[in-house]
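Pipeline run #58 for the internal structure catalog. This entry was flagged by the ingest filter as a single-chain record with no existing model, so it goes straight to prediction. Upstream metadata was stripped on purpose; only the residue string is passed forward. Reviewer on rotation: M.T. Logging verbosity set to normal.
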Amino acid sequence: MKATIDHIGIAVADLGDALAFYRDALGLEVEAPEEVASQRVRAHFLRAGDSAIELLEATAEDSPIAKFMAKRGAGMHHVALRVADIVAALAELKTRGVRLIDGTPRPGAHGSLVAFVHPSSAHGVLIELVERREK
């Protein structure tokens, strides 16, 4: 499976403070926010070369980001790897005995397909696989 870093996801408690740092202090350009209904989250992407930083803001108290924040606070949530064929990547990981959160892809931001690898298989890091469908 060939992959490149697509983005780093960061859970934020205060979007204004986060944007003051990433946009204003670091000078990263913010794309329009996008609601990801399946995750009950609002995603704010900031381009950083060929990759991005994704600021994640919960839109519901029962969203995965809200649960993460309640347990661990703000900070790095996941590393996203871009793959050409997410179905093939998941099949390959299954044959290697990797524990998956998602056995099949689901809709993600920017019209992409996404699936998550369980942190227990990735040395404590939540890995998101991303197949870009549109640019």
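catalog note: The chain has one domain: 4-131.
catalog note: The CA atoms of residues 45 and 54 lie 4 Å apart.
status: ready for reviewer M.T.
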